[in-house]
Design brief:
This protein is of the alpha+beta class. The protein is built from five helices and seven strands, in the order βαααβββαβαββ.
């Protein structure tokens, strides 16, 4: 099936941690498609662990974009643990607001990039959130991706390398609702 001309024709479906058994393989397959040229990297190969880690959280929330029956992208995350806002180490002074949503992953199939799918998924994921803030990590080797998040209201507040084999990421923070 040929993709639609824009993200407008996509169906965005919402899922929670109880849906993980149903959507787990879809997330893994989409990630593998999006990172096909980087799957020799051990960090990328551990993606199923990240799906299980995030998907096992009671507050896990995921949106998947479908063109008909074909999944073409997803975004997911979960509320941060109160009192453990790790990103605060990067902000001085830290915001008074504290309830944080951790935006963990965004992945779009290569044939659907540059059509507004990422923004549509991001806004669907953030819509109606109870948290005050949202935090995410962007590989600092991808400045265009960072600029895209900045255009949605995020700002870089620092850099972090959460795992020894992970890239160094830009730590990005935004107030909710997104602008």
């Amino acid at each position: 099936m040929e993709p639609s001309l824009s993200a407008a024709g996509l169906n965005i479906r919402h899922f929670t941690h109880v849906d993980l058994p149903e959507i787990r393989q879809t997330l893994i397959d989409l990630h593998n498609d999006a990172y096909a040229d980087a799957m020799d990297d051990e960090f990328n190969q551990r993606f199923p662990w990240f799906v299980d880690h995030w998907g096992g959280r009671p507050g896990f929330f995921c949106v998947i974009a479908y063109d008909g029956d074909k999944a073409v992208g997803f975004a997911y995350g979960a509320p941060g643990t109160p009192g453990r806002e790790w990103w605060r180490d990067h902000v001085d002074p830290a915001p008074e607001k504290h309830r944080t949503f951790s935006y963990s992953e965004l992945s779009v199939s290569p044939g659907w990039r540059k059509q507004g799918v990422s923004e549509r998924l991001t806004r669907a994921l953030m819509e109606g959130r109870d948290e005050d803030l949202v935090v995410l990590l962007v590989d600092r080797e991808h400045p265009r991706v960072q600029a895209l998040y900045e255009s949605w209201g995020f700002r870089k507040v620092g850099e972090d390398q959460p795992f020894p084999d992970s890239p160094v990421f830009a730590v990005m923070l935004a107030e909710l609702p997104l602008s």
